[in-house]
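Re: that chain you flagged

S.,

Sorry for the slow reply, it's been a week of failed gels. I finally had a moment to sit down with the sequence you sent. For the record, here it is as I used it:
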Amino acid sequence: MLLHAAIDSRLAFVIADCPYANAADEFAYRLKVEYHLPRFPLLPVASLISKLRTGFAFGDAVPLKTIGQVTAPVFFIHGQADDYIPPEASVALHASKPGQKQLYLAPGAGHAEALVSNPAVYEAQVREFLAEVLPVERTEISDRKAVIGNQ
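Prediction finished late last night. Pasting the structure tokens below so you have them in one place:
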């Protein structure tokens, strides 16, 4: 979503829950944590195969490189205890994003668990962000539940 936000100026806002900053770095981290394998030579080979088969190399997915082009306000949400995509990714993205932005690091929450770990605080944080970036009449949330996707 952050890569798309860099090329689509129509977006009113973005809520990025547990985003990665660099796909290749995330893949390397997962290789190390889950399989105790090194980045080289596996990732360069896998990236080359991906590029040949799909036209997509791992280096093409680096939101940290394009976050400076995102004009829409961005709310970065991350669990402080996320051991799948470390919260440092959201911290780095937030630091690099110019303009309107907000960062919420959910205490004790793991990957994509900020909402379930404390729904009241999560909802309050989202409401606060929306109140800042949207006209007042659009910030009212009806009885319907909003669906917020994770990366």
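What I noticed first: The first strand starts at residue 14 and ends at 17.

Talk soon,
D.
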